[in-house]
Structures are given as structure tokens and as C-alpha cells.
Amino acid sequence: MVKFTVEDHDGNRETIEAPDDMGLSLMEILKASEYPVLATCGGMALCATCHVEIMEGQAELGEASDVELDQLENLPEYFPTSRLACQVRIGPILEGAVIKLRGEDN
User: Fold this and answer.
1) Which residues are in the 2Fe-2S ferredoxin-type domain (predicted)?
2) CB–CB of 101/9 below 8 Å?
3) Which end of the chain has fewer CB atoms surrounding its CB within 10 Å, N or C?
4) What is the reported pTM?
């Protein structure tokens, strides 16, 4: 299991514990934890509605892929630490990370 913190659109923080041996994406865990993540494309890196900002722990995640960057760079609000939650796999690299929701909150 891996623990990380999620900050919602209102600034509230909650620690999430997720299995790190199932190949799940951060998007899947956020949706399962009932966060308002649209994920319109279902995790195909086509819509950027699962946009998150890695506030702490971004160095461990490495760089975003070109496909991911193509989507992120088209957003009205894009940060150097922005990622698509559908492209981040749950694993030990997320231990202690702080993730802020940035996508649409509908």
C-alpha cells in the first residue's frame, strides 16, 4: 500500500491509501475515492479532465510523456508540475506525494 495526500478544489487535504500492486492509475484511485474527476476519455490521455498538480514528490515521478504534454499544454492553466492523473501509475514513487486536483470539478 502507498499513502499520498490529495488536495481538493476547496483546499481540503485527505490522505489516501491505495494498493500499489494492481497497476491502477491515479485517476482510477481518485474516482474510486469519489473525487470529482471527469476523466471523459476514460484514461486515454485525450481530454485532460483529470489534470492534477504534483505539489510534493514530482521529482520521483519523472517527466510527462509527449502525449501527456500535448494535452497539458492546451489547458488554460498549466504548471511545470502538472500531470494527467490517468498517466500516473500508483506505486512506491507516490509515497508521501501531495497531489492537487486541477481538472474540471463537475
Assistant:
1) 1-105
2) yes
3) C
4) 0.93
